[in-house]
Known about the structure:
Layout: H1 2-12, H2 15-19, E1 35-43, H3 48-59, E2 64-70, E3 75-81, H4 87-96, E4 100-102
Antiparallel strand pairs: 1-3, 1-4, 2-3
Amino acid sequence: MVAVFVVIMTLASYYPQIFHQTNGNEIVIxxxxxxQSVKLNIEGMVCQGCETNINNSVNKIDGVIQVxxxxxxxxxxxxxxxxxxxxxxxxxxxLSKGYVIxxxxxx
Length: 107
């Protein structure tokens, strides 16, 4: 019984990588001054699957250029076009996935 639990828990961390494809956004930059970067402190990421979940979800937002999440650091760095989206929209997507965003000095 314990062995089955261990196997299931091990495989669960790979779930998002198996079933979620990485979607790249087509980048069209009109003005470099419209590009902003924000670093969010995120609680609840426990594996690479969590990183993938956040990266894929945020990457679907129109205007997001790049997302780099780290469960080890508990952070996500998002680069986006301020003419197409904003920090609040990005936070809403992350919160909808069940994670908690802590306030930091960069906001």
